[in-house]
Design brief:
This protein has one domain (31-432): Rossmann fold (3-Layer(aba) Sandwich). 29% of the residues lie in helices and 22% in strands. The strands form 2 sheets. Strands 1, 2, 5, 6, 7, 8, 9, 10, 11, 12 and 13 form an 11-stranded mixed beta sheet that branches. Strands 3-4 form a two-stranded antiparallel sheet. The chain is an alpha/beta fold and 436 residues long. It is globular and about 60 Å long.
C-alpha cells in the first residue's frame, strides 16, 4: 500500500512539473507582443525575413534657439540633446532571442495631475545585436512621435519595418516626451529641425569611414519619414510643406514674440534651400496644424514628395475635413494617398494602450492617449503595417506592390487586395496624382 502510494505521489508530482514547464513554454510562445499579426491581419503585415537588432544613440545639436527662454523677441542659444532608438536587420548569435523589454512611462512631466508612472512592455528585437553587413545597405526611415510621446510609441511598426530590410530611427524629441514635456513652442519650432538633424547624423554614421555600427549598412539617399500628430506636422514641413505666416503669428503668441520659426516658412530662402532630395516618401499619421492656420495653399504646394496620409474620420485633435483631409486636398503637387479609419478619432498610429494605465490611478485620458473608441488598436496596427509596407516598398525598394494600393475607394464594396475575405470593412483609401 505504501509502495503504491509512493508511486502515485511520484507520478502526480512529475505530472505537475510537466504541466508547469509546458505552461511556461506555451506562454512564452503564445504571448502577444505589439505588432504581432492577428488571424485577420492583411498580407503585408507579416514580419519580414530579417531578425531585428536595436540600439540607443545620443546626439547633441549645438547652437539651437532655446525658445523656452525667449523674451521680447530675443532668442538665447543652447545645445539640444537628442536621443534616438535604432532598429536594424541583425545577426543573432546562437541561442539569442528576439526579445526585449522597453522602459517607458505614462503621464506627463509638466502636469501634476498626470504623474510619471514607469512600466515595461515586450518587443521582438535583440538589444545590441550585430548588424547584417553582407546584404549591402538598407533604406533609412526616421520616425517622429506626437506631443507628448516617445521613441517607443510605434514599436509595432519600427520593429516590423526593420524585419523587412530597413534601418529605422525613432526620435525622442527633447521637451516633447512624456519624461520632459515643456512648452508647446519648443515642439512647434523643433520638430522639423530635429528630423533634419537626425537624418544628417545617421547619414554620417552610415559612411564607410565611420566606426559606428551603422557604417556601411544604411542608405540615407533612400530615406522616408514617418510622423504622428505633431510628428506629422514636422515631417510634412521637412518634405516641402512650408509653414504659413499664420504659423509665425501662432508661434510668436506663445513664445514671447520670438520669430525663430520663420526659417521654416514657405517663402524663406533658407527653408527652400533645406529641401532634401534624399527623402523619397512620407507617412503622415493624423498631422496636426491645418485647423490652426499652420499651412496655406501656397505652402502646401511645396509638398512634392509622395505622401501617404492616415487619419480617423472623427479626429478631434487634428480635425478631419478641415484638418487632415484639407492637407491632403491641398497638396496638389504630390502623388498622395489617404487611408481613413471610419469613425476613428486621433489615435490611429500608436501601440495599444498599456494595461497599467487602467490600474495606476491616472485619469481615463491617459488610457485614451493610445486607445480608439471604435477600432481594435491591434487591428489598426496590422493594417498600418500592411499599407506602409506597400507604400515604402514601392518608393524605397522598387517593389511591385501597386496592386495593394490600386483599390476601390470604399472598402465595404469589395474585399481589398491583400485582405482576407470579408475583412476590409470600415476603411476608405483615396488617391490623387500630382498635377503635371
Amino acid at each position: 500500500m505504501k509502495l503504491q502510494f509512493s508511486k502515485w505521489l511520484f507520478f502526480s508530482f512529475s505530472l505537475f512539473i510537466f504541466c508547469v514547464i509546458s505552461s511556461k513554454n506555451t506562454f512564452s510562445q503564445d504571448v502577444f507582443v505589439y505588432g504581432d499579426a492577428l488571424p485577420d491581419a492583411p498580407e503585408l503585415a507579416q514580419r519580414g525575413e530579417f531578425k531585428v537588432g536595436v540600439r540607443t544613440l545620443d546626439f547633441v545639436n549645438k547652437g539651437q534657439v532655446d525658445v523656452l527662454k525667449s523674451k521680447g523677441g530675443i532668442d538665447p542659444i543652447y545645445d539640444r540633446n537628442i536621443k534616438v532608438e535604432v532598429w536594424y536587420p541583425a545577426n543573432l548569435v546562437q541561442g539569442a532571442k528576439e526579445s526585449i523589454l522597453y522602459d517607458e512611462v505614462m503621464g506627463t512631466s509638466n502636469d501634476p495631475k498626470r504623474p510619471l508612472i514607469p512600466f515595461t512592455f515586450a518587443g521582438r528585437a535583440s538589444r545590441d545585436a550585430s548588424p547584417i553587413t553582407s546584404n549591402g545597405t538598407f533604406p533609412l526611415i526616421i520616425v517622429s512621435h506626437g506631443y507628448v510621446g516617445s521613441r517607443f510609441l510605434l514599436t509595432y511598426l519600427t520593429e516590423n519595418l526593420a524585419s523587412k530590410g530597413y534601418v529605422v530611427v525613432a526620435i525622442d524629441h527633447t521637451e516633447s516626451t512624456f519624461r520632459d514635456a515643456a512648452g508647446f513652442q519648443s515642439t512647434l519650432l523643433n520638430r522639423s529641425k530635429d528630423v533634419l538633424f537626425v537624418l544628417n547624423q545617421i547619414a554620417d554614421l552610415g559612411k564607410n569611414t565611420s566606426k559606428n555600427f551603422l557604417s556601411g549598412i544604411v542608405n540615407s539617399d533612400e530615406s522616408a519619414l514617418i510622423g504622428y500628430s505633431m510628428g506629422g506636422y514636422g515631417v510634412l514641413n521637412v518634405a516641402g510643406a512650408g509653414y504659413s505666416e499664420g504659423a509665425v503669428k501662432l508661434f510668436g503668441s506663445i513664445s514671447g514674440g520670438s520669430k525663430a520659426i520663420e526659417v521654416r516658412t514657405a517663402n524663406n530662402p533658407d527653408y527652400k534651400n533645406s529641401q532634401d532630395s534624399r527623402i523619397k516618401a512620407v507617412i503622415a499619421f493624423a498631422p496636426w496644424g491645418m485647423e490652426r492656420g499652420v499651412w496655406d495653399a501656397e505652402g502646401l504646394k511645396g509638398l512634392k514628395t509622395p505622401t501617404f496620409f492616415i487619419a480617423g474620420s472623427q479626429d478631434d485633435i487634428s480635425g478631419y475635413e478641415k484638418g487632415i483631409k484639407a492637407i491632403y486636398n491641398g497638396s496638389i503637387n504630390a502623388n498622395r494617398y489617404m487611408l481613413t479609419y471610419m469613425n476613428a478619432r486621433h489615435n490611429v498610429a500608436p501601440n495599444p494602450p498599456p494595461v497599467e494605465s487602467l490600474k495606476s490611478g491616472l485619469p481615463f485620458d491617459e488610457y485614451y492617449r493610445y486607445a480608439e473608441p471604435t477600432w481594435n488598436e491591434r487591428r489598426i496596427n496590422n493594417i498600418n503595417q500592411h499599407f506602409i509596407t506597400a507604400f515604402l516598398g514601392i518608393h524605397l525598394k522598387k517593389k511591385d506592390f501597386g496592386k495593394y494600393l490600386e483599390l476601390k475607394e470604399n472598402s465595404n464594396e469589395k474585399t481589398w487586395t491583400g485582405f482576407k475575405n470579408r475583412s476590409s470593412t470600415g476603411l476608405e483609401l483615396m488617391h490623387s496624382e500630382a498635377i503635371k
